[in-house]
Amino acid sequence: MGSRLSTGQQYAVADRQGDWTAVWYLGQKAWFKNPKKQPTAVDARGWVLTPKDGVSDVPVYGRAYPEKEAYPTGVPVQAVSPLPYKLLAGQKYAVGDKLPGEYFYSPTFDLAPHRVVRGKDMYYEVQFGHRVAFVRAADVKVVPSGS
Fold it and tell me: pTM higher than 0.90 for the full model?
C-alpha cells in the first residue's frame, strides 16, 4: 500500500509539530505539511477508536465476515483472516459504520440458493491506510477525538 492521504478520507491526528501534522496510517505516524495560514487538512471533531485498555494490539480485517456459528447448513464457512497489519495500543483511527459480520452466498445465477449470512459479531469500519478495513467492536473502545 502506498502512503497517500486522499481528499475525503478521515484520519485521527497522532501528533503536531509546528507546520507539520501526523495522522495514524497503517500503524505508524504519517507526517504531512499543514501550515496554519494555509492548511492542507480540515480539522474536525468526531469519534475515534483505539484498542481496549490492557490490549497491546488488535487485528485488522479486509472483510467483516460472520462468526462460524452464524452459517446455516449448506453455506460454506468463510475464514475470518486478519490482514498483516495491527492497530496498536495508543493508536487511534476515525470510526466509520458499526455493522455485523455479513456474507452473501451466491453459488449460481439461479437466485434460489442465494443466502445472506449475518452474524452476531460486530465490526467497526475504519480508514486504514488508503483503504477501508474492519476491526472487531469487542476489541476496541470508541472515544471522542482529541481525548
Answer: no
